[in-house]
Amino acid sequence: MCTDSRAACREELKMNSRRPPDGGYGWVVVISAFFIMGLTTAVLKNFGLFFLDIQSHFQVMTSTTSWVTSTTIGMFHLGAPLASVLTLRFSQRVVIILGGLLSASGMLLASLDLSLPWLYLTMGVMQGLGICFAWIPANSMVSHYFVKWRPIAYGIASSGECVFAILFSPFFQWLIETYSWQGALIIIGGLQLNLCVCGALMRPLEAPQSPIQETKDNLEGDAAELPPKRKVIFQFSLLRKPELLFYILFAIFAAAGFFIPPLFLVPFANSLGMDKYWPALILSILALADLAGRLLCGWLANMRVVRNLQLLTMVVTLLGVVLLLLPINQSYWAIMVFVCLYGFLFGCVVAIHVTSIVDIVSLEGFDNGLGLFMLFRSFGGFIGPPAAGWLVDQTNDYSSAFYLSGACLISSAVFVVLVDRILQKKKCIEAEDQRSNAKDNPDAEKVN
How confident is the model at residue 8 (pLDDT cuts 50, 70, 90)? Predict the structure, then answer.
């Protein structure tokens, strides 16, 4: 109850109205984010289907072709701070719509097939920024609408990437065969225009103050108490937190390994003599296993059986081991088993590695923390695929790409362990301080 003053009562009502609803319209936001994930990262995941056609068309080396995907991944991450600032300045809705227009334009312009550098600009820079401008605000909206059910809500939203990847793998392959890779890009660009519709559904959480209430406040002389205009400041000061710095190092190493397998799975399968539709089937099975991992790990994280960072350490380490073993036995069924394991563990990592940022910087700093996380992760995503392509060119063996990916992921798990230890140490210190204050002020404890 608020009995001190009317101003205190109004402040309490404002705070209650800003609390995440953990449901209601939040589920519309989750469904919208589900489609956004599908129309952005699921498209990026299937870039490997275009790899051999583009390489053959321009008659270039593997490492040169891989820069198309690498540029997309790099811009997807480098644009994160800009997306965060634009979200704070305008709204998630506006930025997502802008992202949809950029993504669609990038694909449509890429279909003109002017040159390989033209693909770097269109499929790389424009598509990457478009994916970023849609993906970052969508994650932000889900995190702001949910607290109790955040892991499950994020798991459902992120599963859109898997569901669409399952559908897109055979669909894109059919498009390439029917309309060529240039015609396929036109159709994909048209599909990505639906990101604008998804953005329109992203209703801001804080409702504006009604004119009647505003007039009443002015008459009561409380106009000075109205919230000031929100300042758009990107909090680079968060980098002073050692736990965030270690988590960023995890992001760099993990990103270097994350984006290699989806790009090289199709060429690897083709090098083993598999029919062209079997690699597409492998990507669909990978996406199905990814979906199972996201939903199961999101549910497990919501149960709080283990700490998020502990769970993240386990699944990242196992993911690295699976990638090291994947190319050893080159029979079809052995590859399918390892692809299923890889997809499942990849989904587990995706389900919790973004929401864990809240544990490090709190919900208040999530938008800026996510922007910094994505910004620095770009270095790993930008270097990983070309480095793997260079190894393939040197060894003439696609297996080397998977060895590099596995080594990077296992290395990244070390930094998650360090983050978890720092946070647990801080919690212990805070608990001791609270106990000390309680002993020093027993009367205050009784009053409370």
Answer: very low
